[in-house]
Specification:
Rossmann fold, 12 strands, 4-stranded antiparallel β-sheet, 2 domains, 40% helix, Arc Repressor Mutant, subunit A
């Protein structure tokens, strides 16, 4: 049974989400403040964290940032009562994989959780061959272990960063629109909000490129999207 940690300071929301997620077959652990949520995340190691932004003691941004600093790459679905672009993008920049704005329906949260967990169980494409490694320039994607190396150095990627890189690699040389990447990687409708793609591409570039401002692997196709190529291709 896959486990989900829900962190929210509103008891009614905790009860509602716990009930609906458990009805969908998940083991659910809850916390009412940021510090408790952080401790449970580190000790329980859940498969998914549903994390409210506004929390007493330690807010969701700090929890998210601390977990990523601790090299914990568990997917994080951030909840926020605010609808400002700043909060959404900042949450993604600090390491959240996804976000939802309150108010929301419990069914919507369950659907989003299922989508995230389904995408985190990446299947190895049959056409990759027996070595199960994709090589592009100095970049190696080890599909069996979900590991990525650049010049032999292992990179620390979040599950969503890995999925995005793998999707781009499986479409090497093809220009992919932001909407295509949203549908292919996030497996959910975002009402045209493609900024989540740009933020994750930026994170990937910081990790795989020597110079993020002059990328050799993930190229921007202005006004359309991105494509992945090897250096000097």
């Amino acid at each position: 049974m896959r486990s989900i940690l829900v962190v929210d300071d509103e008891p009614s929301i905790l009860t509602l989400l716990k009930f609906n997620l458990e009805q969908s077959g998940y083991n659910v652990v809850t916390a009412e403040d940021g510090r408790q949520g952080l401790d449970l995340a580190l000790s329980e190691k859940p498969d998914l964290i549903v994390l409210d932004l506004m929390l007493p003691g330690m807010d969701g941004m700090d929890v998210c940032k601390t977990l990523r600093q601790e090299k914990m790459n568990t997917p994080i679905l951030m909840l926020t009562a605010k609808d400002e672009e700043f909060d959404k993008i900042l949450g993604l920049e600090l390491g959240a994989d996804d976000y939802m704005t309150k108010p929301f329906s419990p069914r919507e949260v369950v659907a989003r959780a299922k989508a995230i967990l389904r995408r985190s169980q990446i299947e190895v494409p049959e056409e990759t061959g027996q070595d199960e490694i994709l090589r592009i320039g100095n970049l190696e994607i080890h599909l069996d272990k979900y590991d990525v190396y650049i010049r032999g150095v292992k990179l620390i990627l979040t599950p969503k960063e890995f999925e995005l890189l793998l999707y781009l690699a499986n479409h090497k040389g093809k220009v992919l629109s932001r909407d295509q990447l949203l549908n292919g990687v996030w497996d959910f409708h975002y009402d045209g909000d493609t900024r989540i793609v740009d933020v994750h591409v930026s994170h990937l570039r910081e990790k795989i490129e020597d110079d993020g401002k002059r990328p050799e692997y993930i190229r921007t196709i202005r006004g359309f999207g991105y494509k992945l190529e090897g250096p000097a291709e």
